[in-house]
Amino acid sequence: MSYSRLASKYIPASADNYMRGRGGYKVCKITPHHMACQWSAETCARSFQVAGREASANYCIGSDGTIVANVDEENRAWTSSNYYNDCQSITIEIANDNTDTWTISPKAWNALVNLCVDVCKRYGFRLNYTGNANGSLTEHRMFTATACPGPYLHSKMPQLAQEVNARLDGQTVAPTQPSSPSTPSGEKYSVSTPICTNTLSVNCYGTGKVYKGDWNGTIGRVIKGAKYPYRVDRNGVAIGWTNDTGIDTDPHIPGGSAQSTPTVLNSIPSDFNRESATFYPNITLKIRKAPTEKGIDTGFYYSNGMSVQYDGYVKREGFVWISWISASTGERRWMKAGVLNSKGYNTNPYGRFV
Ligand SMILES: [Zn+2]
After folding, report:
1. Where is the region Disordered (predicted)?
2. Distance in angstroms (rounded) separating the CA atoms of residues 120 and 118
3. Fold that domain 9-168 belongs to in CATH
4. ipTM of the complex
């Protein structure tokens, strides 16, 4: 077994997800990839533990600079859609932010440089970026129709080769802080503004999923003109991106206290039935602050294709009302989940209970 001493851990990929050996080739290339995700190194490596995914990498680097080994260097990882490249290459997945340029953090950059220096020293080669597959620094985009490693890393390939080679030559290179796009202004909200939103765009592995729900946080970054220009941070961790529409249609005030009227029920009533399960509505349902038609409308809803985890229900006004604690406000939420029959059974549910 061999992997870099710079790796803090070895989280092996599923045996389904890489090739034994390197087909007789020796290591003479490095191929940096972008995760299209801000996963930790460990999360990325674990994603390659899923059997049948048919993808892996020799290393994963997180935004905090952590390096995790995933496929033993003696083996060919399945990363770059090219047999000859990956047989000869140490492949590295690197976490990036969720911007159009897929920028990587300064810590991830420094970890990448260090890992490249270590690999080049051990296998005895230098980084040569030729812009095509003949060089010793290659990119996924040279082999298939992909943006990988993303515009940012792509633009940094010559710099990566230069820094790594300088280190191999014994030159002291100050740790680089790769330039990141300056924080643009010109959007409605600015950095550090506390917000609530009902829309969160999360782009992992290019899935570009947009979730509807109920989140609060602080704007951590603004990308002017982006579809989802605001990065939402919670406790210092980016949870996704949102836009003006998502923020404006969310009526509650961060840190605001719940309105104390009979149309709000935050406590557990005596007729509450505890049940932890997930509800998948097949129609659009309003989320209220009390289990009654008179309960305050939060302005949010769940609809077909979404799901909610609830912790119990009551039967009132001819309906079953499921309930849960809002993750963002800590308040109890209520939503109709079906019509009761004359015997009080939920024979006409508004979706699936799992
Ligand atoms: Zn890639």
Report:
1. 172-191
2. 6
3. Lysozyme-like (3.40.80)
4. 0.98
Give residue-wise pLDDT tens across range 99-148. Answer: 778 899 999 999 999 999 999 999 999 999 999 999 999 999 999 888 89
Read off the pLDDT of residues 295-343 as tens digits, 9 standing for 90 and up: 888 888 898 888 999 999 999 888 899 999 988 888 899 999 988 877 7
Q: 3-state DSSP call for residue 108?
A: helix
Q: Classify the C-alpha dihedral 42-44-45-46 as positive or negative.
A: positive
Amino acid type, 117: V
Residue ranges of domains in the chain: 9-168, 194-248, 273-353
Q: How far is the CA of 43 from the centre of ligand 1 (A)?
A: 16
Using DSSP's 3-state secondary structure scheme, residue 115 falls into: helix
What's the 193 CA to ligand 1 centre distance in angstroms? 35
Superfamily of domain 273-353: SH3 Domains (2.30.30.40)
Distance 103 CA to ligand 1 centre (A): 14
Beta strands 29-34; 89-94: pairing state: parallel
